[in-house]
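Each field is set out as follows.
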Amino acid sequence: MTFMALDFGERRIGIATSDSRILATPHSVLKRTTKKKDFAHLQQLIKKLRITQIIVGLPYSLNPQNDPEKIGPQAKRVIKYITAMSEVIDTPVEFFDETYSTAEAKDYMRATAQQNKQVDAVAAAVILQKYLDYVSRPTDFLPQ
């Protein structure tokens, strides 16, 4: 399987990939314009890279008083966007928690002096790496 992760922002979409099922790599950042143009660009990448699974970062609420079954307005926007995308792109999509992915990406970039990377693509790689780790060792993620 070849994976692509998407980290959605208001203006940009971070993209990461993995064809090894072991290591995620930042790929690129798509500046959002229209859904039609965004979907066409993503479709081209999916075809070129032979993507078989898309992992989409879903921003869960960090407020512990919120019901864990409920999602916030940003997550609703992501779901709406992906629903529209799924009407055009038939690659399977799975949502995965993206909590703290941007902060982790910034920390990684500072620690490794990789300021030339775009944080959105690195955040997508963080999401994808967590997903790959989860599917390879799901019991590591169970509460202690």
Remarks:
- The domain at 3-141 is CATH 3.30.420.140 (Nucleotidyltransferase; domain 5).
- Residues 53 and 91 are 6 Å apart (CA to CA).
- The longest strand covers residues 12-18.
- DSSP finds four helices and five strands in the chain.
